[in-house]
Amino acid sequence: MGSPPMEKRRGGLTLDPNPFLAGALERKLSLDSGSAASSAFVFPPSRYEERSFVCEMDFFSGERSGLETPSVPSLDLKIKKDDLSINTGLQLANTGSDHSTVEEEDDKEGKCEVAVMEAELRRATEENQRLRGMLSQVTSNYNKLHMQIISIMQQRSHQIIPQIQQGEEEDGMPRRFTDVGRGAEADEPSHSSTDGSSRDRSPSPMNNAEKVTIAGDGSGVFGEERPEKPGKLLNFVSKPADQAQEATMRKARVSVRARSEAPMISDGCQWRKYGQKMAKGNPCPRAYYRCTMAAGCPVRKQVQRCAEDRSILITTYEGNHNHPLPPAAIAMASTTSAAASMLLTGSMPSSDALMNPSFLARTILPCSATMATISASAPFPTVTLDLTQSPNSLQLLRPPVPQVFGQTMYSNQSKFSGLQMSAPDLEKAGPPAARSLADKMSAVTAAITADPNFTAALAAAIKSIIGGGPLSGGNDSGGNDMSPPAGWGFPATS
DNA sequence: CGGATTTGACCAGCGC
DNA sequence: GCGCTGGTCAAATCCG
Questions:
Q1: Is the CB of A275 under 7 A from strand C?
Q2: Which residue did the predictor score with more confidence, A13 or A264?
Q3: Which of A78, A85, A271, A428 is the most buried (most CB within 10 A)?
């Protein structure tokens, strides 16, 4: 009477006896009748600190109601982060039944539970170790790449000046990005010196955009208003170089593919539509927006649905904000700005970055080897972030994307063709490190899938590595003060 | 009424 | 030179 059959208590759990735990439990699970017993097991400080979870096992489930005297309703197993202990609270009702029977059954039950706990802990330990290793690797890779970026940008700042000043055209070699810069420079006189029939575009934000100042050391002027005289902030970059950088920055683009039924993804900024065109090869019109958070902000974006999958919204950003951004907008601005910076870096002749798209992709989004691609083709160098590809990857970037599902990449990217590579290509072509990183990220996402409870913490950790905050969707992020990590080096970014 | 959107026109770049 | 295309402008219109 009183005690249910053991098989019900075990609940079909597999056992994996552990002498340490089992012995401890046998020792501690000596129950006093009519009282609640609580046992604590202190584990050696180790990897359990990463996790804190509660495992509740109800051995009676639906049958509990049929019992007159539920002797062991539940076992509450807790692994705490702080004291690294496991507490088992075994609640016993005063049933008046034979205590020794209860003890025996509870001993057996305890062994079962210990085994289950031990198996779970072992799994959690392995998972934790794996994830920590991945995180450290990602962090390490990020730091290495970041140092490379800084070095390259500094080198470029020194090298591009004499090239531009000498008019570096004698070699005839195509320099995609510097050509873009020169092209934009060439546009300048055409705007001002065209015949009277041409419109006076002087008040156009375009011209303002071309005055964006880039700090000479590559560090951003984040949050600062653009000075009236471009170049005031420059230490050693001459005006021509500055203009070339400006033009390139303005032309560099970041394309974000995301599934959304909304006409436009929310990125925290205010936009005003200034045009709409039917683009060739796509029945869906392309809308043109410009940032209206500050007068003269050069940032523009194009929004267009994918021709082959209209649930995919393709948003292409161009330029850097010249005004402070709300927290909700910082993440997206940081991403686009970082992409522009990387493409600017790629403008350096013989740049490894230009020749190695995976380098750029991993630099911009260190964990996104399967998400980011680079197109250095004319007319504009473009980074494409595909947020439709991997639901797991998207957990890291979920805020701006209401819904995401697995999707084949780049179904309609003819406009941004060129060096663009699909994720598999990227992994094939990249050095072993690239493949390794991709593998690690796959493992990370798999681990996240395996343990949804761990998603938030890991996502936050990786997000902090990626770019200092969620790619927030403005209205749905709830506000996040995270700033881009120091040293991102966003040129002229607000 | 002021701001946002729509929409036709204009312009520049590019390829043939 | 011409046509095509992408990008932008600005007047007209819409909307809160």
A1: yes
A2: A264
A3: A271
Instruction: Judge whether residue A280 contacts strand B, using its CB and a 7 Å cut-off.
Output: no
CA of A225 to C1' of B3 (A): 24
pLDDT exceeds cutoff 80 at A82: no
pLDDT at A282: 86
Domains delineated in chain A: 251-345+368-387 (2.20.25.80)
pLDDT of residue A303: 92
Q: Which residue is nearest to nucleotide C8 (CA to C1')?
A: A275
The answer to whether residues A454 and A448 touch, using CB atoms and an 8 Å cutoff, is yes
Cα A25 to Cα A44, A53, A211, A312, A382: the distances in Å are 16, 19, 72, 55, 60
Residue A173's pLDDT is: 36
Q: Please give the residue that has the higher pLDDT: either A319 or A238.
A: A319
User: Residue A492: which residues within 8 A CB-CB, separation 6 or more?
Assistant: A212, A213, A214, A215, A220, A221, A226, A246, A249, A320, A322
Residues A454, A446 contacting (CB under 8 angstroms)? no
Complete edge-to-edge strand list for the sheet that includes strand A253-259: A271-278, A285-291, A300-305, A312-318, A253-259, A382-386, A372-375
- Region A185-197: what's the mean pLDDT? 35
pLDDT above 70: residue A298: yes
Closest CA to A119 of A177, A55, A44: A55
A443: CB within 7 A of chain B nucleic strand: no
Peptide bond between residue A379 and the one before it cis (omega within 30 degrees of 0): yes
From A315, A338, A461, select the one nearest A400 (Cα to Cα): A315
- Whether the CB of A417 is less than 7 Å away from nucleic strand C comes out as no
pLDDT in tens, A359-400: 444 444 444 444 667 665 546 677 788 877 654 433 333 333
Residue A274 pLDDT: 92
Kindly state the tokens that stand for A301.
Answer: 């974006």
Rounded Cα–Cα distance for residues A292 and A289 (Å):
9
